[in-house]
Amino acid sequence: MTETLFSFDKRNYRECQQMFRGTREQEYYLGELRIEDASTVDVRSERKTVGAISIIKQRSATNLSFRRSRQHIREDATDLSILWFVKHGELALSNQCGNKVARPGDFVITRSMSPFFIECRTDSDNVHEVLHVTVPTHILRSYIQQNFSTGLFMPMERAELAIAENILTDVFEDDGGLGEESARLLAETAFGLIGNAVRAAEDVQPARQSIAERRLEEVLRFIEVHLSDPQLSTAMVAKGCGISPRYLSFLLRLRETSFSELVWEQRLAKAKAWLASSDPHDISISEIAYGVGFKSPAHFSRMFKRVFGANPREYRGECSAREAMAVQVETSEGFPEYPVAGQLLQ
């Protein structure tokens, strides 16, 4: 469920500097918030938390501004990154790199560890609205490696960004039907999509694929789809991809592998991952063997031990023991606490 972070009107907007971080000053990071004195003052911010992440919908009928200086950073070194999806009005960012303005349909990333000044300007209908997501920077770094310390602006023309916004909006609007793990998974998926969009934006002119490279992609996809079929063969792949077995061998040589090496390598890798992530009560080793295309559990066990140095039962036992030990350590030491993710105007 969402919660109201703050709500300002004519009666209390002059107290915004003391109120926007909450009674214990746990929300956001230090900075100077200002709300313009206008005939109508209406500022509202609502939040949905997902672990250390906050998804915040902010709507205002009044211009706002927020400044974070080096002094603020020295006093409060909270390192948060903010993902902004601008819906109405403008978001103007000023920092040591210059001035930029985001408009409806634009996507922005800002970070709390660099000084900045942000203005949230209303549109001709006196509305400013953003969906912004506050996330500890060390978490976001798992998805976006590019430098965004002084801000990153992108138009929402990439499909990944639009889908990410829809996912985060759905999580925000969920009325409690989603479990915590599902909400976290969706947020992480959105971050992954954003990371893909940022990386793709750096490729101004992607390299053109040759015909052989395109054909190889088709072959690899066919093998992936039919990996569980024990009858998978070069003849089956060649026919399915509309090429000759000889040309198939040529394409696989581009990857410096043979058909049998590629298939058995993929089958064993998927079986290994399946063993590590599954419970013996839910699925047996035999089912896993058949599920990745082996004709018999005995053959699977022999090949698995030859490659990984332990038979499937031993490997699964080692994974279970490691997982139990990790749970024991977390229980005894406790989970690290992240600062509450939040920030009004980054």
UniProtKB/TrEMBL annotation:
<dbReference type="InterPro" id="IPR018060">
    <property type="entry name" value="HTH_AraC"/>
</dbReference>
<dbReference type="InterPro" id="IPR009057">
    <property type="entry name" value="Homeodomain-like_sf"/>
</dbReference>
<feature type="domain" description="HTH araC/xylS-type">
    <location>
        <begin position="217"/>
        <end position="318"/>
    </location>
</feature>
<dbReference type="Pfam" id="PF12833">
    <property type="entry name" value="HTH_18"/>
</dbReference>
<dbReference type="InterPro" id="IPR018062">
    <property type="entry name" value="HTH_AraC-typ_CS"/>
</dbReference>
<protein>
    <submittedName>
        <fullName>AraC family transcriptional regulator</fullName>
    </submittedName>
</protein>
<keyword id="KW-0805">Transcription regulation</keyword>
<keyword id="KW-0238">DNA-binding</keyword>
<keyword id="KW-0804">Transcription</keyword>
<dbReference type="InterPro" id="IPR020449">
    <property type="entry name" value="Tscrpt_reg_AraC-type_HTH"/>
</dbReference>
